[in-house]
Structures are given as C-alpha cells and as structure tokens.
Specification:
With 115 residues, this protein is an alpha+beta fold. Strands 1-2-3 form a three-stranded antiparallel sheet. Keywords: Coiled coil, Cytoplasm, DNA-binding.
C-alpha cells in the first residue's frame, strides 16, 4: 500500500517539475527567432517562438498604392512562411526543456501546454 502512495507522490513531484520546466521553456521561446521572405526577398517577416511577429521589412520599391494587394499578399506569405519555419524549433525547444522529466511518449505533443 505504501508503495503506491510513494509512487503517487513521486508522480506529483514530477508533474510539478514538468510545470516549472514548461513555464521556463515558454518564457525562453521569445528568444527563438525565425525570418522568412517572399517576393524574392522584397518582404521579410521575423517571428519569435511565442508566435509574435517581431519584425517586418518591406523593400521601398514595393510601397506603391497601385500594388497594394500584391504587397498584402507578399506580407501574408512571408509571415506564414516564418511561422511554418519556427514551429519545429518550438517543438524541439519544449522537448529539450522537458527531457528527463517525462518519459518519451511517441505522439505526445507538448505544444498544447502553450495555450
């Protein structure tokens, strides 16, 4: 009987460790940065691991009221590409942060903890 209680206490301790490590890992996501471009480099978007757009660089030649729709499309394309590129970095960062605290369970997605 005491064995089960000790196992339960150990598991609760691991969950507290996991919560602390996840909080720390999430705080550090702001330092993971990825940049992507569209329009042959005329639009560059920079995002961080907290999925914030932190930079947008637009070539001055693109700033033309006649080409507003094209500019909007290029911005959306660059931002979406940057988000695609940062996703694997986020997963890798969270896996490293919780390494040793949780058993490696195939298919376990820790990204859900971020919401």
């Amino acid at each position: 009987m005491f064995g089960n209680m000790a196992d339960m206490m150990g598991m609760m301790g691991k969950m507290k460790d996991l919560q602390a490590k996840m909080k720390e890992a999430q705080d550090q996501l702001g330092t993971i940065i990825e940049t992507a471009e569209s329009g042959g480099g005329m639009v560059k978007a920079t995002v961080n691991g907290q999925k914030n757009l932190i930079g947008l660089d637009i070539d001055k030649d693109l700033v033309n009221p006649e080409d507003k729709e094209m500019l909007q499309d290029l911005i959306v394309a660059a931002v979406n590409k940057a988000y695609e590129r940062i996703e694997p970095k986020i997963k890798e960062h969270l896996q490293k942060a919780t390494d040793g605290v949780l058993p490696n369970i195939p298919g376990l997605d820790l990204g859900g903890f971020m919401k």
